[in-house]
Amino acid sequence: MTSPQDVKLQSTLLSLNARAWGIAFGLVLGGGLFLATLFLVVKGGPTPGQHLQLLGAFFPGYRVSVLGSLVGFVYAFVMGYALGRIIGEVYNRLALR
């Protein structure tokens, strides 16, 4: 038979830190967009990042430029943070049933 302490220990070990997941997802998505934008800026060409420029429709102010990479980082970090928090919260609710 399991004691209440064992149940509490098991639930603690199974739970995720939703804030940490949010920060990790935010850094991965934001850093990825930041690096992809800077890579295309350095690569240059007549129209750098035609497909990446389409993110400007979802992220107002985003352009394939050095300043745009910073703007894109902020937007992608916020979206990644929200996604990571949601994943952490849903996992915790399902795992602790």
Tally of alpha and pi helices: 3
Determine Rg (CA atoms, Å).
19 Å
The biggest sheet, with number of strands, parallel, antiparallel or mixed sense and barrel status, is:
none
Calculate the mean pLDDT score and round it: 89
> What percentage of residues falls in helices of 4 or more residues?
55-70%
- Classify the secondary structure makeup into a structural class: mainly alpha
Oligomer: single chain
Q: Work out the number of β strands.
A: 0
**Low-confidence segments, ≥5 residues, pLDDT <50?**
none
Number of structural units classed as domains? 1
Could you give the order of the helices and strands? HHH
Strand residues, percent: under 5%
State the end-to-end CA separation: 18 Å
Q: What's the shape? A: rod-shaped
Task: Tell me what the structure shows.
This protein has helices at 4-14, 18-43, 66-95. The longest helix has 30 residues, at 66-95. The chain has 3 helices and no strands. By secondary structure, the chain is mainly alpha-helical. α2 (18-43) packs antiparallel against α3 (66-95). 69% of the residues lie in helices and 0% in strands. 25% of the residues are buried. The chain starts with a helix and ends with a helix. It has one domain.
Give the gist of this structure.
It is built from 3 helices and no strands. The chain has helices spanning 4-14, 18-43, 66-95. The two termini are 18 Å apart.
Keywords:
97 residues, single chain, mainly alpha, rod-shaped, 3 helices
Secondary-structure blueprint:
Elements lengths: L3 H11 L3 H26 L22 H30 L2
